[in-house]
Design goal:
The protein is an alpha+beta fold. The chain is 26% helix and 25% strand. It has three domains: 2-309, Metallo-beta-lactamase, Chain A; 321-443, SCP2 sterol-binding domain (Nonspecific Lipid-transfer Protein, Chain A), CATH 3.30.1050; 450-515, Rieske [2Fe-2S] iron-sulphur domain (Rieske Iron-sulfur Protein). It has helices spanning 45-55, 74-77, 96-102, 161-168, 192-217, 250-260, 297-306, 309-313, 321-339, 391-398, 404-409, 424-431, 437-448; strands at 2-7, 10-14, 18-22, 59-63, 85-90, 108-112, 117-120, 123-131, 136-144, 147-151, 173-177, 221-225, 267-268, 276-278, 283-285, 352-356, 359-367, 372-376, 384-389, 414-418, 453-458, 461-466, 480-482, 486-488, 495-497, 503-504, 514-515. α9 packs across α10 (391-398).
Length: 519
Amino acid sequence: MDITYLGHAGFYVEAEQFVLVMDPWLSPEGAFDSAWFQFPCNHHLAPWLCEALRQTKKERFVYVSHEHRDHFDPSFLAKLPLQDVTFLVPRFDRPALREELAKLNPKAIVPVDHGAHVPLPGGAARLFLDDGGINRDSAILVKSRGQSFLNMNDCKLYDEVADIARTEGPISVFTCQFSGATWHPTCYEYEPAEYSRISAHKLKSKFEMVARAIAAVQPKCFIPSAGPACFLDPVLFHINFQPVNIFPRTAQFFSFLRERLNGIPTAMVDMMPGDVWRSISEQFRPLGTERVDEANFASYLRSYAARYQQYFADRQPRPTDDNLQKIVAALRGALQTKLEPLSLNARIHVPLYFGLSDAESRMLRLDFPAKRVDLVSQISDADYYSLTTPSWQIQRVLEGKITWEEFALTFRVKLNRKPDVYQTLIQGFLLMEPEDMNSFCSKLLEIEQRQKRITIEAGGTRYSIDHYCPHQGADLTQGWLSDGRYWVCPRHRWHFALDKDGQCMGNKGSIHAICLDHD
């Protein structure tokens, strides 16, 4: 099995009787309304991949893990010889991914359920789905002739990794995301010291989660993937050079792994787009032409951004006052439409203020319990959640050019919340389409109704806690102790204080911890 790295989370897997392309993101316009770009640049591989699929006599498959545009690149996929391609896709409750792929008229689309096996010529694939509402993602395990490749990409099913390795191992090659990919704390208006503190904490817990996965899988080779992207828009470019944030580069990650996993014989390979790992011989072939390290990182990025200078200059609209009024009116209607199916609205006790950075006196206030959207001129509540974005960016959502989730990942927003506590319902409301609200609320209720409890040991003391995380239902038996007092969720690294009845640090939720070893 030869694995060619396509950049970001993309791979070209060539087995004896089939080829399988995973999450190819190669379009030069990047993703999320040109907020994210491939790092290093991989656009030059697009013609090569198209030709490889045309020329091969083997069966052709393409796997798309989820809807995020840094994994699902429809403009590039449309260039492939799709009359010969079978898509393997997760069968999410939301059918949008399957529906968009069907428009490309491929040879076939095979929707796959969680844990299901798919026969391939001379091998097989198995998909693992995380369909929790806010998160829709999947992982894939590919096997051929005694070799296996487990690709987790962005999928957070780390509480299932040990079971996958036990039932499907040994694993030849393992890859997963090692950097962050959300708007917290990137877009939040924190003081610099607080921003660095939060970023460092999230980074440390992410690294630890991946290290534990590698230790559980014990692959022959580990390849870091799915991040970080880079940011070439002038309004976002500074993110690339922040001293501490949630977008570490490979050198920092490998430094952590070398210390944390000292003694594990797994080869750790930093691949560039075009590089090849030969699984059978365990041989690395550095064939990529775009090579970036810590020495040339800054100059490389500045050169990369310079190529897009005019592109971004042409994207700066100047809205008239009349246009701003129309955008505010349309946004008010869109938010009201999202509110209507939100059945758990009464649980949100702080208002959401939605503002436009170029229309500061026209702000919308969402009263969740009353399901009202009012036009206001300023924030008048002591406790609130606020979001501000340029009018042209939200107009892209209103015109259906990007989804609400894609809008969030543009990072062209400013956020604030008082108190500074994560609320799953507000996050879901902001990220989801109106038609997904009912399903989202139903899944939250389903998690809450799981009454099973487990016993864990932390520092010699036993605690009874909820079996499943209140966030998205992760199995807490796979969690771990941090700083002697926090039980950490294995999927999203929520920290629950065992000495404070299991209350979550910085998020709204609890695992109802009861100490079983009283004096």
